[in-house]
Specification:
By secondary structure, the protein is α+β, with helices and mostly antiparallel strands. It is built from three helices and six strands.
Length: 134
């Protein structure tokens, strides 16, 4: 059982991580609002142009990692190849979710570092995934 001070420190770290993520998302939304969107005439909704495929990694509290891939329906990789890249860099995939919306496929994988003290080199994972999905 963790001490209260340790729990409070962990909560404070998590709050700072969330604040950083909110700022990143605000900056991303502002960049998209600066002219990277179209208005569709047929239904009045706004569609955002996204350069495909999208590879995004987020380090979560502790030694966990969230991997988000957004691709088209015709992709040139398998989910087992993605898992192989993640596991090859020292993480263990604990869950994977796939959903298709329109002509886009969203893959979300959650992983934990196999050795917490060593962690996972997210830059290398991101680079290898980008090479795989392109």
């Amino acid at each position: 059982m963790q001490s209260r001070q340790h729990q409070l420190d962990g909560a404070g770290t998590y709050i700072k991580l969330l604040e950083k993520r909110v700022e990143e998302l605000k900056a991303r939304r502002a960049a998209l609002a600066m002219g990277n969107h179209d208005s569709t005439a047929n239904d009045g909704n706004t569609s955002i142009k996204i350069e495909m495929p999208v590879v995004e990694l987020r380090e979560c509290l502790g030694s966990s990692l969230e991997v988000v891939l957004i691709t088209g329906l015709k992709k040139n990789f398998t989910i087992s190849e993605v898992i192989g890249v993640i596991e090859g860099e020292g993480a263990e995939v604990v869950s994977a979710r796939l959903s298709a919306v329109g002509d886009k496929v969203f893959h979300t994988l959650h992983a934990q570092a196999k050795v917490c003290r060593v962690g996972v080199d997210t830059a290398k994972v991101c680079q290898r995934l980008k090479e795989l999905v392109r």
